[in-house]
Amino acid sequence: MSLRPDQKFDYRHVGYGFLAACALSALAFFGLLIGAILDVRQFAFSYLFAFVFFFTISLGALFWVIVHHAVDAEWSVVMRRQLENSACLFSALAVLFIPLVFVAPDLWAWMDPANAGNPVLQEKAAYLNRPFFWGRTLVYFAVFIGSAYLLRAYSVAQDASGSVRCTIYNRRVAFASIVPLALCVTFAAVDWLMSLDWHWFSTIWGVYLFAGAALSSLCVLVLVVTALRSVGYFKGLITEEHYHILGKLLLAFTIFWAYIGFSQYMLIWYANIPEETSYFILRNTGSWNVLSILLVVGHFVVPFLLLLPSLGKRRPGFLCGVAGWILAMHLLDVYLMVLPELHRTGFRPSILDLLAVLAIGSTLVAVFLKALGDSALYPIRDPRLQQSIDLQN
Amino acid sequence: MAEGTLSPVEERARASVERAPLVAPGRTRGWISDYVSSIVEAKTPRWWWVAISITGTLLLVLIACTTYLVATGVGVWGNNHPVGWAWDITNFVFWIGIGHAGTLISAILFLTRQKWRTSINRAAEAMTLFAVICAAIYPTMHVGRVWMSWFLIPVPNANGIWQNFRSPLMWDAFAVLTYFLVSVLFWYTGLIPDLATLRDRATTKVRKFFYGILALGWRGGNRQWRHYEMAYLLLAGLSTPLVLSVHSVVSFDFAASVIPGWHTTIFPPYFVAGAIFGGFAMVLTILIPARAVYRPLGDLITVSHIDKMCKVLLFTGSIVGYAYLMEMFMAWYSGNPFERATFWYRATGPYWWAYALMILCNVAVPQLLWFRFFRTHVIWVFVIAMFANVGMWFERFVIVATSLTRDFLPSSWGMFHPTWVDIAMFAGTFGLFGTLFLLFIRFLPMICMFEVKAVLPSANPDSGGKL
Question: B13 and A182 in contact by Cβ < 8 A?
Answer without folding.
Answer: no
